[in-house]
Design a protein that fits this description.
It is built from six helices and seven strands. With 187 residues, it is of the alpha+beta class. The protein has one domain. Strands 1, 2, 3, 4, 5, 6 and 7 form a seven-stranded mixed β-sheet that branches. A hairpin with a 2-residue loop joins strand 2 and strand 3. Helix 1 crosses helix 2.
């Protein structure tokens, strides 16, 4: 699994998840999808694509243990509360985790910073690749402007899928993904 393969898969399956949930829940507003739905839906599709074990709501502490890390009591306490939305495995070791976020008018970009900080701790200490998947919703700002602002906040490129019209047809959204390990920075 290469970085670009995972990014493309997260975008494709994240888009499918929104469209599928919109149908099964008869949503008028696509952003009413619970973030937890991404984990289960995308995990199944990642398994189908890559044929590797995939875990949903995967504890950071389990990831650390599988990486055979020295875990101090303080570190154990900090990791105990944290879970990755999806954990990907290869040969019994988790090389990657994925976190999902719906970025609409109720979720400011600044909320992504907290997710990045917790995931970065895991990535740096335990050599795990971290991917961030986003449902990016048009608000008062056009979709392109929202993607650009997100890239500024993250300090790196966010790869996006095709824009989608909401069920109501009143606004658009797209699914995006980036890797915290990826070196292509925005700008």
């Amino acid at each position: 699994m290469e970085v670009d393969e995972i990014i493309k898969a997260v975008i494709e399956f994240g888009t499918e998840a929104v469209l599928r949930y919109r149908t099964v829940a008869s949503l008028r507003h696509d952003n009413e999808l619970p973030e937890v739905f991404f984990g289960g839906f995308v995990a199944c599709r990642l398994y189908d694509r890559f044929r590797c074990p995939v875990h949903v709501e995967h504890p950071y502490l389990t990831v650390a243990r599988h990486r055979e890390a020295h875990i101090t009591p303080d570190l154990e306490e900090r990791l105990r509360q944290l879970r990755a939305d999806v954990g990907l495995y290869r040969q019994g070791v988790p090389p990657a985790i994925i976190e999902f976020k719906i970025l609409d008018e109720t979720c400011p970009f600044s909320s992504v910073v907290g997710d990045i900080q917790k995931a970065s701790q895991l990535a740096e200490r335990f050599k795990v690749d971290v991917y961030l998947g986003f449902m990016i919703c048009e608000t008062a700002d056009h979709l392109d402007a929202r993607v650009s602002k997100l890239q500024d906040v993250l300090g790196r490129a966010v790869h996006t899928g095709d824009p989608q019209k909401s069920a109501s047809g009143e606004w658009s959204w797209c699914f995006g993904c980036c890797s915290l390990s990826e070196t292509d920075l925005a700008g």
